[in-house]
Each structure stands twice: as C-alpha cells, then as structure tokens.
Amino acid sequence: MPYTKPLPKIRPYTKEFWEAAKQGELLIQHCKDCDKNIFYPREVCPKCQSTHLEYIKSGGRGRLFSFSLVEKGAPPDFKEDQPYVICLVNMYEKVRIGSMLVGYDDYAALKLGQEVEVVFDPVTDDIHLPKFKPVGSDFSFKK
Ligand SMILES: [Zn+2]
User: Taking a C-beta distance cutoff of 8 angstroms, is the pair 62, 94 a contact?
Assistant: First the structure.
C-alpha cells in the first residue's frame, strides 16, 4: 500500500536531516552564534535570527515530557491509526520533539520522565520519520 498521509517536504536546509534519518541517525541543529540547539530544522535561529546553523548528531535519547492516547478525533489522515500515542520528548540535547510513541507494552505503565529513544519509521524511500519507543523496547519498523 502506498503511504497516503501528509509527508514533510524535503527542502534545501532539511536535506541533510532526512538523509541522516535514512541512516538511522537523528540530527538537530545548533546555532553557531548563540549556541542554542534547535528542533525542528529551520533556516534561521528562532532565538537570535542567525543563519549560521549547523547540524549535530543527537544521541537519540530523551525523556517523556508529555504523552496522550489518541482514541478518537484524530485528523482524517490518521483515523486508521487510532488508538495511537502522541508524545513530547525532552531530548538530552535540550530540544523538545513532538512525535509518536511506539513499541510500548502497556499504555497505563507509561510514565512522565521515562527514558525513550528514537526509532525511524521508513514510510517512503525518502522519508524515514523519527518516532520514539521506551528504552529497552526491541520494537522496530519493518522495511
Ligand atoms: Zn542563535
């Protein structure tokens, strides 16, 4: 089945990000002028408006800042995925990433502050979406 959900557009300044994702590496941006780390990828630093941004490798781990089970009311493109869990992850590189949580055994056992790690969902040849799973989960997306 072809992937029918909305996809990110690959732009000149996000090409490196999506190429790394295909290799299973999460990149975040770092501003060379104000030293702030940035996520999601942008052309301009949201703190100081500098364009001197570089990609750095993330360790891929962080802690659950928030999460929620979506059982009803998902946007039309995501209805078939219900129930699913959306999450906000505080990465150790001090950026917050909004994504989906996968590979957990029991929703009721999830805890704020729980350590999670990135796992890439290869939804198309070009786009491997970063999602998160509890550290220790052996879950992976099949290619
Ligand atoms: Zn900056």
Answer: no
CA torsion 5-95-70-122 (nearest 10°) is 30
Write the pLDDT tens digit of every residue in 87-129: 999 999 999 999 999 999 999 999 999 999 999 999 999 999 9
Q: What does the pLDDT look like over 119-143, one tens digit per residue?
A: 999 999 999 999 999 999 999 998 6
Distance 11 CA to ligand 1 centre (A): 20
Cα(96) to centroid(ligand 1), Å: 16
| 89 and 63 Cβ atoms separated by less than 8 Å | yes
The rounded Å distance from CA 49 to ligand 1 centre is 6
Q: Specify the DSSP element, H or E, that contains 13.
A: none
Give 111 Cα–ligand 1 centroid separation in angstroms.
33
